[in-house]
Design brief:
α3 crosses α4. Strands 1, 2, 3, 4, 5, 6, 7, 8 and 9 form a 9-stranded antiparallel sheet that branches. The protein is about 15% helix and about 30% strand. It is globular, with a radius of gyration of 16 Å. By secondary structure, the chain is α+β, with helices and mostly antiparallel strands. The chain starts with a helix and ends in a 9-residue tail after the last strand. It contains 4 helices and 9 strands, in the order ααβββββααββββ. The structure holds a DNA duplex.
DNA sequence: GGATAGATTTTCT
DNA sequence: GAAAATCTATCCG
């Protein structure tokens, strides 16, 4: 399991890159789900797209906390996004986890995703976690886990299983022009089929 | 296969 | 009252 020093060691963009290949794990009463992190985005304090850009508020308070905390927020009324708080306490930065490659508990992920769908349908394995809102649903992560310290169960991250990975850098997804649209703060594993947008 | 509209609620102005 | 770090169903080719 990754410890505090890992989250504190890197600046936000380096952490976003380092998290690729690591394994996000969530232990719940229904079972354990886990997946390899294959896509991330960095949000810096001097970045208009960052929630903590304007000022320190109730919602963004956790982003100013110590690195390694979880930040879960609701987006577009019905979905949630999971972030890892980065940068020293007092600096409002975080890494958005955008996609996972399902590892453990795939049946449970399918169950949770189907329960969230309007009509009965079967999800392919690569459709379970290939987007920020999707992985939160599949992993059973809840908004109340904001402020959870990711160095202990039930929600934590394991170190890379298989050596270094080939990383591709790109513009972020869903950022409007004039809001840091052109910044190359998105990182994903080359050729991985679970990435939200190749 | 790709494009598009609609769902729905918290947060801040 | 508007905007938001999205996803799915449904249309069309």
């Amino acid at each position: 399991m990754l410890q505090k020093d890992f989250y504190a060691r890197f600046d936000t963009r380096s952490l976003a890159r380092e998290l690729l290949g690591c394994v996000l794990v969530h232990e719940t009463p229904e079972g354990t789900t886990s997946g390899i992190i294959v896509e991330t985005e960095a949000y810096l304090c001097d970045d208009p797209a960052c929630h903590a850009f304007n000022r320190r508020t109730t919602r963004t308070e956790v982003m100013y906390g110590e690195p390694g905390l979880a930040y879960v927020y609701q987006i577009y009324g019905m979905y949630f996004c999971f972030n890892v708080v980065s940068a020293p306490a007092g600096t409002g930065e975080a890494v958005l986890i955008r996609a996972l490659e399902p590892l453990e508990g795939i049946a449970l992920m399918r169950e949770r995703r189907s329960a969230g769908a309007n009509t009965a349908r079967t999800f392919k394995t690569k459709e379970l976690c290939n987007g920020p809102g999707k992985l939160v649903q599949a992993m059973g992560i809840h908004k109340s886990q904001t402020f959870h310290d990711l160095v202990k169960p039930p929600l934590y991250i394991n170190e890379k299983v298989s050596g270094e990975v080939e990383v591709v850098v790109s513009k972020r997804i869903g950022i409007a022009e004039g809001k840091g649209h052109e910044l190359l703060y998105r990182y994903f594993i080359k050729g991985n089929v679970n990435v939200s947008r190749p």
